[in-house]
Each structure stands twice: as C-alpha cells, then as structure tokens.
C-alpha cells in the first residue's frame, strides 16, 4: 500500500466568479493509521454534486461549511483495508462521506452503509443506489405525492437526480416533462430516460418564452414540479401549475448561494392554484435509505431504470469534474474514479 495519503483541500472560498479550480489545492501527508474503534478506508470513487457549491460558500447553509484547509467534503465509496471496528470487517465496501482523498480513517460516524458489490457496480452507490436515488425517490414521493395520470415536470431533467425522478414518475403512471440544458440532454431525456417531452431551456431567451413553450409541452398543466434550479427556469413553470399542485424544492442551481437575487414572486400562483411548495434535504431521510435502495435496485434489475455516468480518472481530476457539473456540460452522474 502507498505510504502517503493524497487529498484535495479547500484553499479559498469562491469569489464573485463562483467556484473555480483555484478554490482547491492538492496536499500530501502520511497515510493515516486507525486507532481503537476505527477503520482505514481506501477511497475508490468520489461523487460530484451540486450541493458542493453551498458546502464551500461562506454564507449560511443547511450544514457547516467546509473549513479552509480541510479535505473537500464528498460522498464516497471505498474498501476497508484495516479495522479495529466490529461492524466493518476488512474487505467490506462502504458508502459514506470520506471526502476527496485516497485514504481515510473513520469511527463509523461518516459511513452511511455497507454496500453489496454483487447488487450493482460499486459506482452505483454514488447515484442510483445512494444519495442521488434517495433524493430522487423520496423527494418525489414525499413532497410531490404523484398520482397516476398526473404531469410531473422536472428541472435539470437529464442530471443524476432528475433522470431518476422522470423514470420513477413514469413507473408510477405519470406523464413526465423535462427541462434541461442542451440538445444532447433533451435526447437523453427522451431516448434514454423515457420522458414524454423535454425542452432545452437554453433555446429560450427568457422565462416568458420558456413558459410559452411549456404551455404546448404540458397542455394539461403541471401537477408536480420537482425543482432543482429555482430562478428564471422555475419562474416559467409557475403559471402552469394546476389546482392543488405540489412543488418539491431540491436545489437552487440557477441562483447564487448568497445574496439571494430579487426576482418574480411566486406567491400569487401558489395562492390561486392552492399549491404547496416544500424544501427537501436528503440529510433528513437517511432512515429511508435501505428501503429506497431495495426499491430502486429491483427496478434496475428489471430493466425499468437506466443510468448514465460521466467519469473522470484520478484524484487530481476532481476539481475539473466539479466544474463540468456546475457548468452543465456533463452527461450523466459526475464521478471520479481513483485507480489503485
């Protein structure tokens, strides 16, 4: 085993230009040694997620920001190489939050579950069978409460979460309409993920033009909106809500973390349509992870859910992979593979 650990730490907070590779730096240190009640994990896969933008911002968020000089926070999958912990034997694979580094010592508090490599490829535990799948399924079911025959609209519809939301909506007997950011992603929505319709929001100059297109795409209105953008994209959706519509706010990628921008007010649409809008954070729903994984794994094995991965190789590629995600140029779940 290599004698050194390599990690990527947060070097500076994002400035007015947003998140850039200059926010991070690569460091080396001796490989950690587990103490009593601890285990040593060789990290094999890293996840890049939209929430990372908020994790490194200085402003208030739902979790403490990554500290300057601290290892970049990330969902991970790895293998236990040494263990003084009775629950995690050597050789088992774990999904957790070990961050952007090759080696990590854990007391178990940052491990979410032991994963079964026979169930699906290990990387799936960072999307369909991990936090992505949990976010998609529970956000839709608990906040959206979809019913057969209803129309479910999804922003960032070809992203890792949105792709699962659209496919679950179809399995539940709903009509799925996607909003995404390129012609290629529109094709993915229709041809790979089975959406009934999809729009490239970049084809429209403003929310009014996008709203007019939505009127044709969703002629019967929208009953459930799974929102991962906020901003002008969501402004275009609001006029098409049906009475009793439900909105799940899962992300705000189209607006800066701080300060919040001033824009159209949705209150009138919510009032007239007697609609509800609720925020969803996956961190509140870890207790449902095992049941959700079982459901999604069953659908995957039955060929009812399809996935796509956008993989970069090596720890050093992690900042660039995150930029790809935040700029919307990825196709599928953004992952970093750490070769041994």
Overview of the molecule:
- With 340 residues, this protein is an alpha/beta fold.
- The chain folds into two domains: 4-127 and 308-337, Quinone Oxidoreductase, Chain A, domain 1 (Alpha-Beta Complex); 131-283, NAD(P)-binding Rossmann-like Domain (Rossmann fold), CATH 3.40.50.
- It has helices spanning 52-55, 131-144, 160-171, 183-192, 207-217, 231-237, 267-272, 289-301, 318-327, and strands spanning 4-10, 24-30, 39-47, 76-83, 93-96, 103-106, 111-115, 151-155, 175-180, 197-200, 222-227, 241-249, 276-279, 309-313, 333-337.
- The strands form three sheets. Strands 3, 4, 5, 6, 7, 14 and 15 form a seven-stranded mixed beta sheet that branches. A six-stranded parallel beta sheet has the order 10-9-8-11-12-13, with helices on both faces. Strands 1-2 form a two-stranded antiparallel sheet.
- The longest helix is centred in the middle third of the chain and has 14 residues, at 131-144.
- It starts with a strand and ends with a strand.
- The model has no long low-confidence stretch (mean pLDDT 93).
Major sheet details: 7 strands, mixed
Q: Count of DSSP E strands?
A: 15
The string of secondary-structure elements, in order, is EEEHEEEEHEHEHEHEHEHEHEHE
Query: Please, how many helices?
Result: 9
The CA-CA distance between the termini, in Å, is: 9 Å
Q: Please tell me what the overall shape is.
A: globular
**What is the CATH H-level superfamily of the largest domain?**
Medium-chain alcohol dehydrogenases, catalytic domain
